[in-house]
Sequence to fold (450 residues):
Amino acid sequence: MVKQIAISLFINGAPVSALVEPRLTLADFLRHELNLTGTHLGCEHGVCGACTVLLDEQSVRACLLLAAQLDDRRITTVEGLSPAKGLSPLQQCFRKHHALQCGFCTPGMLVSAHALLQENPHPSRAQIEDALSGNLCRCTGYIPIVDAIEEAAGMDPV
Amino acid sequence: MKPPVFDYHRAASIDEALALIAQHGGDAKLLAGGQSLMPALNFRLTAPAALIDLNAIECLTGVKETGNGDLIAGAMTRHRYFETSPLIERHLPLLRHAMGSVAHVAIRNRGTLGGSLCHADPSAEWPALCLACDAQMGLQGRGGTRWLKADAFFVDLFTTALAPDELLAQVVFPAWPQGRRWGFQEVARRRGDFAIVGVVCVMDVDEGGVCTWACIVVFGIGGRPVSLHEAAAELTGRKPQPSHVLSAARCAQSAADCRTDHHASADYRRELVQALTARAIDQALGRESVHG
Fold:
């Protein structure tokens, strides 16, 4: 019988305490334990980018982290990128440019784009494409996604 | 697609990690950035009894400069640090540049130098970079630290000289002489994917334009990165002209023992070795490449 691990962390700014099995990934912790189903799970081996979340301020794959590792850390999911009401400017730009078709990759795209714009508020188109290189869209709708991020660049993120 | 059952230990110090390794007698895995281990666990390609998490060991993270300009990197330093640190840009710009080819930013935010080196994927950039920089690996066991040069550390596919009761604690990158030149070329199917073939070229050129020393490392072709001494010898003692670049690239092609796998045939890899070697040398020389 493996020992469960006690963790206390902040998810989208709110304190959360839990007792977790060591093998529980952050992605499954978010989706199954906290019902934060905005974080999507595609490949479960770090390739597709759908589960991208922020660990402190940095983008990471939630399928490649264990919940047990995250005591005292701050996690931001796609739910945490929106204001209390409505959409963030980045999300509005996604809607305006039809930057989603099936929507499966969208949470990862938004989190990756948010991390990019926090670090580099005025990225070039090439820098946007590079920042999205780890996020797969199988509807192949990359062009409107890049267009949306280009328009959101320089706007107030919240 | 979910990991098997394991115990989890967060080591607070190197001594504690070494004690946990000993306690589990080879049935535990060290968890560094987890960007290769976690996929392997999710696929159930590995099923250790326990994970020993190294992320809380502060002394394993960061890069220090010694008095003579060597850089000592903690094994848990993340790829993203090497990509963004002014210290790295100043001392080893090759490393900063090459990080752009190491997976994607979300992976580089987590993945570590030591994790990549100990995983020893033949298509990974770090082992080749360490070979080209003549880096030394500090392997810490309960009896102390032993030092191995990169060439002795990498054994074969996913195999290193690290003993089961040791952990890789530090990597020392010897200081570069003033003006050392470098080139880094890689072909992958998609930006950030593992290299099909990559080539690193490092060289010193004196004021008269004569190459006084060169090193050409090829990776992705076989079980581990290799330094192609014969190809480098085509450049040393000469003012490298396009004909010398071409003969070095041809020499690299004939010396490279290339594998076939589902990504590429051995023939295609040999073609890439020649083209990328020429481009890497031209990049180091600061020339527009005229080769392939």
Remarks:
- The longest helix of chain A spans residues 106-119.
- Residues 113 and 124 of chain A are 13 Å apart (CA to CA).
